[in-house]
Structure to design on (266 residues):
């Protein structure tokens, strides 16, 4: 609880969180205004998918920057050193810091979209189950990139390195990986389709988007071609949950490994 309250105060006192929330809210309102011209039957679902596509570019960078600078500030102000030498182990600190960051940052963005649900309800054909699927996609997406941000904050030794690591990670996940998929796509056959599918859907952007499309009723698992059946061999929700478990666990472990290596070196 002290970590959660401390993180809440630090994030709300800074400008980064408020600027990020304002940016997300403004872009969402523009998409909401545009969605009024969509067909009534699937207009709401199409708008939610457009919101997610916008979040692909905004949320990874925002989540990583906010989380990584929060952790880096602990090192810069020597509060991390005091905590781990007096009462906390490295594992305990990272665990509590992770929970606090996840709760505060995910909670803040979810609250913004809950507030935006009010104009959605009056302007569009609001569907609660579809909006719940969107919030689930938002939760999975943020949980992964907040944890990556925590790892970058632990691994970086100065602010310039931290900024560069955030930008390079964002560029690699959002743009560079897709270029790699396009390069290897012509070589995909029925024999190696499952291996390519694992590589493709272990990218949280693809896995979560596919899950959202399926939950919104915009992508059906019936009537697929044989190649598509080999590629989408698991329920999209299962792929998304694998990402939710795999990447935060991996980056938490890497952060702990680097933290312990640094402590032993010191």
């Amino acid at each position: 609880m002290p970590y959660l309250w401390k993180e809440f105060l630090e994030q709300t006192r800074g400008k980064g969180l408020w600027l990020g929330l304002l940016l997300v809210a403004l872009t969402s309102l523009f998409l909401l205004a545009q969605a009024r011209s969509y067909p009534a039957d699937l207009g709401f679902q199409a708008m939610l998918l457009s919101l997610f596509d916008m979040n692909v570019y905004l949320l990874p960078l925002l989540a990583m920057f906010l989380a990584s600078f929060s952790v880096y500030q602990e090192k810069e102000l020597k509060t991390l050193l005091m905590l781990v030498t007096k009462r906390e182990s490295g594992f305990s600190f990272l665990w509590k810091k992770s929970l606090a960051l996840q709760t505060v940052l995910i909670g803040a963005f979810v609250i913004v979209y809950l507030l935006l649900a009010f104009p959605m309800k009056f302007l569009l054909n609001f569907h609660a189950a579809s909006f719940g699927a969107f919030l689930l996609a938002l939760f999975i997406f943020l949980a992964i990139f907040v944890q990556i941000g925590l790892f970058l904050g632990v691994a970086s030794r100065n602010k310039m390195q931290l900024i560069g690591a955030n930008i390079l990670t964002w560029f690699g996940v959002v743009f560079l990986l897709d270029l790699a998929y396009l390069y290897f796509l012509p070589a995909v056959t029925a024999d190696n389709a499952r291996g390519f599918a694992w590589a493709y859907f272990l990218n949280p952007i693809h896995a979560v988007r596919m899950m959202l499309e399926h939950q919104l009723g915009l992508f059906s698992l019936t009537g697929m071609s044989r190649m598509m059946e080999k590629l989408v061999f698991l329920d999209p929700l299962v792929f998304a949950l694998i990402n939710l478990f795999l990447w935060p666990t991996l980056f938490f472990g890497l952060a702990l490994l680097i933290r312990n290596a640094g402590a032993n070196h010191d």
About this structure: The CA atoms of residues 27 and 172 lie 23 Å apart. The mean pLDDT is 88. The two ends are 29 Å apart (CA to CA). The chain has one domain: 2-265.
